[in-house]
Amino acid sequence: MRDDVLGNQTIVNGPPAPLPFVSPPADMVRWPRIEISDHRLITVAGLHGGAGTSTVAAMLGDQATDAGTGWPVAAGWVRPLPTLRVVVVARTHWVGLDAAENFTQQWISGELTDSRLLGLVLVDDAPKLMEQQRRAVKRLLQKVPTGAHIPWVEHWRIQAPDFTSPPKRLQKIIRTFHTKAEEDNT
Does pTM top 0.90 for this prediction? Predict the structure, then answer.
């Protein structure tokens, strides 16, 4: 699986926590919250409809749950409520990149502390990205603790992805998010 955006780099590391000197956007609309009572190791949330959330959750395996869209916060009867470890997903079209820009700005300014952000996965929306899309992907992945990019996979258009033996690039993404979640869970 070749990556025309990141080349041989698979994971991009950014700030591990929000930055106290970054102000929230002046025209900020608070990111919608969604209550989740399925407290698995990783919660996968879409930044917009059609982001690829179910694909990324399936890729991360049984220890991941698909929360749909919104910022997931723990709910349910268990006390104390756990802190969810969240991977957010967006596509690389303008809706996805705009949503990722809005989300990362809110997160980095400390507006989304109900759960812990593990990282952002950007999923290609077409076989070849334009230069401005490639620049946006690189920039956005640097704004979160862990960033990953999934290049276009043509056969996913006609058949479900098979994650029993994923390509090395996806294996590294899976391993990285699982390791970060397990470290945070201790």
Answer: yes
